[in-house]
């Protein structure tokens, strides 16, 4: 078969299975699928599955389907479907014509359930949900047969038809597979495969009031679509015998092969859609795309790039054992990408005015600045310089301690792309705080070096006071304070300092034409992107990630 396997792609146990299947002629081609439930936004954990399924299909010259497992209309919404498709495309993958919904198969699934009943392998049960749990037994004790387990085929067919026709109330009747109530695998103890839900479906409307359960739907949807390798996370390992049992009863071979891998667990990050929804509903965050959220929409708004996320997913690899990946590796991948692609600019978050007293009043000169030292094609820009500039308030101290090399009374520093300046005086406000600095510049140091060879120990970023733009800057940090936010009550582990809004920042004039999503390195401050709230009259930037690469330092230890 045609293959596009990159020799540099690291092998893993899933690829080994596929390679063996192809070598033995088990399949003519590889077909995978990404099967999200449309009950929330995708998060970084889903990105691993997306990259794995679509990546395998691409590498082996096969195809990957996007299929929505839309069998629970109570929790599903078209908004989630649209967001999921946007996220998959944003990551760089395309399903082409292979977009499917489990609801496409409702008629077929119903007929498969009828076939199970006819074989005497499914029955309508009237036990309540609590009673079903009680009858199921424990890990050490076998379950008990339902009193409805031995109904005749004819009675089960009639009752199932009446369920379909809406004659029973929710919770009063379910259809269960008839397998083994003494099985050591609790999943196989007559699982529920259909339940009553009198809720309109976003695609089928009021046509159905019974809906198949996930375990029944998933394996049959895979088989209908011709999926060869059904790749899922480890929590479905115990469900694999049920996956295979259902297919053995009602679907001709060859069958899809379920393969489990370890899901992505990321430190300081929570990936329960139920709990993420709680954060949204309670207003803890501004929405599913809040830049603090681990959703792909949130990461995109914060300024993460698809290339960085794909690189991250490739680096963490595919394994059978669960582990926790340090969040700093994700940030490291992002820095590596942005370092090569993000234009540089200067911004001052907390401005302190400096008046350069020996610089001519009214004069403006334009200094050449490099846009990206790692990309010669990015070229240069002209930055206006004038008598009054802003520097970062943190770059000045009245009485600096040892090791502080930035500006102080009587001290000389370099201005990035500009001149050496020396602080000559300090202006205080009524409350005794520093409100302005006076300085002199050395016109012989244009470009940042002194003809006489003298050195300075600090280079500061700056912007011209009258030739810069106001901006709001949102400084985001981790949403949770604990490595495992699920320890105890996750709401008690929220970081109260996860967002700081800086209202009076100043940015270079070259920011006038930016658009939402544009990314930059603010020199010395970190990587930032233009937020969706930004307009030409009100620039808003999000801090994507700081410049400090804690992961790289950790690797060197």
Strand content bin: 15-25%
Low-confidence stretches: 1-8, 550-557
Total helical elements: 13
Pairing-aware structural class of the strands and helices? Answer: alpha/beta
What does the average pLDDT come to? Answer: 94
As an assembly, this protein is: single chain
Helix coverage percent: 25-40%
Q: Give the C-level CATH assignment of one domain.
A: Alpha Beta
CATH architecture of one domain: 3-Layer(aba) Sandwich
The strand order across the widest sheet is 12-25-26-27-23-24-13
First-to-last CA distance: 46 Å
Q: Roughly how many Å is the radius of gyration?
A: 31 Å
Give the tally of β-strands: 27
Which fold name corresponds to the CATH topology of one domain? Rossmann fold
CATH superfamily of one domain: HUPs
What profile does the largest beta sheet have? 7 strands, mixed
- Globally, the shape reads elongated
Structure, explained:
- The chain has 557 residues and is of the alpha/beta class.
- Among the domains are: 13-261, HUPs (Rossmann fold, 3-Layer(aba) Sandwich); 347-460, Ribosomal Protein L25, Chain P, CATH 2.40.240.10.
- The chain contains 13 helices and 27 strands.
- Strand 25 (519-522) and strand 26 (526-530) form a beta hairpin.
- The relative contact order is 0.10.
Q: How would you concisely characterize the structure shown here?
A:
By secondary structure, this protein is an alpha/beta fold. The chain has helices at 13-23, 44-59, 78-90, 106-118, 129-136, 153-164, 214-225, 240-250, 273-281, 296-302, 306-316, 327-341, 550-556; strands at residues 31-34, 63-68, 99-101, 122-125, 174-177, 192-196, 210-212, 229-233, 257-261, 265-266, 324-325, 344-345, 347-348, 351-356, 365-370, 380-385, 388-392, 412-415, 420-428, 434-442, 459-460, 462-464, 468-476, 499-508, 519-522, 526-530, 539-545.
């Amino acid at each position: 078969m045609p293959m596009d396997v990159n020799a540099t792609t690291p092998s893993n146990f899933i690829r080994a299975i596929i390679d063996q299947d192809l070598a033995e002629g088990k399949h003519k081609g590889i077909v995978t699928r990404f099967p999200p439930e449309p009950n929330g936004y995708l998060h970084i954990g889903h990105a691993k599955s997306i990259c794995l399924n679509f990546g395998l299909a691409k590498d082996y010259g096969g195809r990957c389907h996007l299929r929505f497992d839309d069998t629970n209309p109570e929790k599903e919404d078209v908004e989630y479907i649209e967001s999921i498709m946007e996220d998959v495309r944003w990551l760089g993958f395309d399903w082409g014509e292979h977009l499917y919904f489990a609801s496409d198969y409702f008629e077929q699934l119903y007929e498969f359930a009828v076939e199970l009943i006819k074989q005497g392998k499914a029955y309508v049960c009237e036990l309540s949900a609590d009673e079903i749990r009680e009858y199921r037994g424990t890990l050490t004790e076998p379950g008990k047969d339902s009193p409805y387990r031995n109904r005749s085929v004819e009675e089960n067919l009639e009752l199932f038809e009446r369920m379909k026709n809406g004659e029973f109330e929710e919770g009063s009747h379910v259809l269960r597979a008839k397998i083994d109530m003494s099985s050591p695998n609790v999943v196989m103890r007559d699982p529920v495969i259909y339940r009553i839900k009198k809720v309109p479906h976003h695609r089928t409307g009021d046509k159905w009031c019974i809906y198949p359960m996930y375990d029944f739907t998933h394996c049959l949807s895979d088989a209908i679509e011709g999926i060869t390798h059904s790749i899922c996370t480890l929590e479905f390992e115990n469900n694999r015998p049920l996956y295979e049992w259902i297919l053995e009863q009602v679907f001709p071979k060859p069958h899809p092969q379920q393969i489990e891998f370890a899901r992505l667990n990321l430190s300081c990050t929570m990936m329960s859609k139920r709990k993420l929804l709680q954060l949204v509903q309670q207003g803890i965050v501004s929405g599913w795309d809040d830049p603090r959220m681990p959703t792909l929409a949130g990461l995109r708004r914060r300024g993460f790039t698809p290339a960085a996320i794909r690189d991250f997913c490739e680096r963490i690899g595919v394994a059978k054992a669960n582990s926790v990946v340090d969040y700093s590796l994700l940030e490291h991948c992002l820095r590596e990408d942005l370092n090569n692609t993000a234009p540089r600019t200067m911004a001052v978050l907390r401005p302190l005015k400096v008046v350069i007293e020996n610089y001519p009043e009214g004069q403006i000169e334009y200094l050449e600045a490099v846009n990206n030292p790692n990309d010669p094609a990015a070229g240069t820009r002209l930055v206006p310089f004038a008598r009054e500039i802003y520097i970062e308030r943190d770059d000045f101290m009245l009485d600096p301690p040892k090791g502080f090399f930035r500006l102080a009374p009587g001290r000389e520093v370099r201005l990035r792309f500009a001149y050496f300046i020396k602080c000559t005086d300090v202006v205080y406000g009524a409350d005794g705080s520093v409100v302005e600095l006076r300085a002199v510049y050395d016109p012989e140091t244009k470009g940042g070096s002194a003809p006489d060879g003298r050195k300075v120990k600090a280079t500061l970023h700056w912007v011209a006071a009258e030739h810069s733009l106001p901006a709001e800057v949102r400084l985001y940090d981790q949403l949770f304070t604990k490595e495992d936010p699920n320890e105890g009550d996750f709401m008690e582990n929220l970081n109260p300092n996860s967002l700081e809004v800086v209202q009076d920042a100043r940015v270079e004039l070259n920011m006038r034409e930016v658009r939402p999503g544009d990314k930059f390195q603010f020199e010395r401050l970190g990587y930032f992107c233009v937020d969706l709230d930004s307009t030409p009259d009100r620039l808003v930037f999000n801090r994507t990630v700081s410049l400090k690469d804690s992961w790289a330092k950790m690797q060197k230890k």
